[in-house]
Amino acid sequence: MTPSHSPRLLADIGGTYARFTLQVAPSRFEHTASLLCAEHADFHAAVTAYLGRLPEGLAPTVEHAAIAIANPVEGDEVRMTNYHWQFSIEQMRQRLGLSTLVVVNDFTALAMALPRLAPSQRRQVGGGQARENSVIGVIGAGSGLGVSGLIPLSDGYVALGTEGGHTNFAPRDEREIAILRYGMTLYSHLSFERLLSGPGLELIHRALSERAGLVPEGLSAPEITRRALDHADPLCEETLQAFCSILGTAAGNLAVTLGALGGVYIGGGIVPRLGEYFDASPFRARFEDKGRFSDYVKVIPTFVVTAEHATFDGVAAILAAQLRTLHAEHGSAILGQIQRAREGLSPAEKRVADHVLAHPRSALNDPIAEIAKAAQVSQPTVIRFCRSLGCEGLSDFKLRLASGLSATVPLTHTQVTGSDSVLELGVKVLGNTASAILQVREQLNRDTLVRAIDLLAAAERIEFYAVGHYGVVADDAQFKFLRFGVPSASVTDPRLQLLSAKVLRPSDVVVIISSSGRVDDLLAVCETAHARGAPVVAITASQSPLARKADVALIVDHVEDVATHVPMVSRILHLLVIDILAVGLAMRRGAESVSALPDVAAVGLDEAPANAVLPTARRAGPGISTSGPLSRLTSHSR
Fold first, then answer.
1. CB contact burial 267-276 (16+ within 10 A = b; e otherwise)
2. How confident is the model at residue 390 (pLDDT cuts 50, 70, 90)?
3. Per the database record, which ranges form the HTH rpiR-type domain (predicted)?
4. Is 12 annotated as a binding residue?
5. Is 15 annotated as a binding residue?
6. Is 139 annotated as a binding residue?
7. CATH superfamily of 8-114
8. Average predicted confidence (pLDDT) for the chain
9. Domain ranges of the chain
């Protein structure tokens, strides 16, 4: 249970029931209880009710919690699709007095449990043999339809957070066409979830009643299932048979979509209760019914998850990974930024940094006077520390800190190895890039962005300066801003940069792009621009000389060893910051500029009109194009 030995609160929240347990050791759960959601006003009330049932003195020992919820989880706000509960993750953590609160999609959690299942915790339906180190699919019906998958890595798996249950229902026979027609009288979009769920089972029963010319009885899903399993009602049996057939179609679609040669697992609250009936149902035949691809899916095994606590196991694994990350690497982007910047701080600012790293929760909640007292510094020193990280002040710093400490799923960087397949390589590159993008998102500062866009909007001319591999970022910026009718230039040759900077005017704005912020040529450009009265916007690393010299610094902290590798992720991050500035300027300039945005995204530099660079020609100055062959002579990158 390291790094904390206290019991951990786990929950599995659906549209009908909220299940809770305490994890007291790996795969050991105690005090498990199911509460009806309808009996509690909101999520906080349900958690409080569960904690109130625990033995006296146990609830206060809970420091960490993880919630698997039947809902997409993006950012801090959670709004359930199939129920009315909604809450802020960070506010809920504070109300419950927790150190950590992780919230993930329930089928992401179930997917993470699959590699940990013992053979006795799953039951194979039909033939097929799982291929090792292959993609795994997971699907299951309950109050809704959950869909997820696992992508294998060299040291584990990455779980996919999807909403695949909302894909369009596709009928395969006359009976299902009748179900589709009935469903479309109720919904403009009939998804698989509308049928493969508890409410969906009831909808199928009503549709088949109408097809048979019968008056629907209004039976509940549990009653339909009971009558079908007891062979007490032919219409209920047909309903359950149709349900299993449609689930076979959805599972087969998932198998071919993901290439799930590692198998497809069926979870949720309905199928595991069907027992042997499901094994003998049309599910497997429909799963294999894929026309030209039938041979492909026949070798893919399908399993019913029979483990009682599978979702708890999965969400517990995600929480454990989050706690390891927070313990070993201080978790959030802002804390990692403090670690990297610490050596460049003053002695007093270092004491503030050490206090925040050692007590991030206290720093998040304490007023400035308490933080200053704990770090043995003055209150202005605390403010200087915050601003040294690119924050506007203490409140902005706390917002970024709260976002990092309340992360939903840990962000990771996975090393590419020589033994990786092409698929594994692609997954790792995309995953690493996505992780870096999300970390930069946490670093964004609203006021800094507004000031940068204000400067660009007021500029008569904008010049973009970069060297080496980052020259393409400056070229891309020039093209985008020219598309908006803004006179712009990309200056990427160090020999021309100082000459160009010497003819800047106060009405011009300089944008300097540098990953390290320590390139002498670019620092000289910054000083020359200031001498000419032109403001400087820098896209660079925090605590760098360029960040300190610029009028506005947009922070991109991503370390790449450019002495031995061509920069990849950092260059993408700089391009994205340019896109943010371009979109911001377009919105500021009005609808006409906004309408050009799709063209900016769709048209490459090689497709630019021949006269696109005409507005960049100077009326006086070097008289040399800065985007020509000379700009590509440099091979160094900083």
1. bbbbbbebee
2. confident
3. 332-408
4. yes
5. yes
6. no
7. ATPase, nucleotide binding domain (3.30.420.40)
8. 83
9. 8-114, 332-405, 444-632
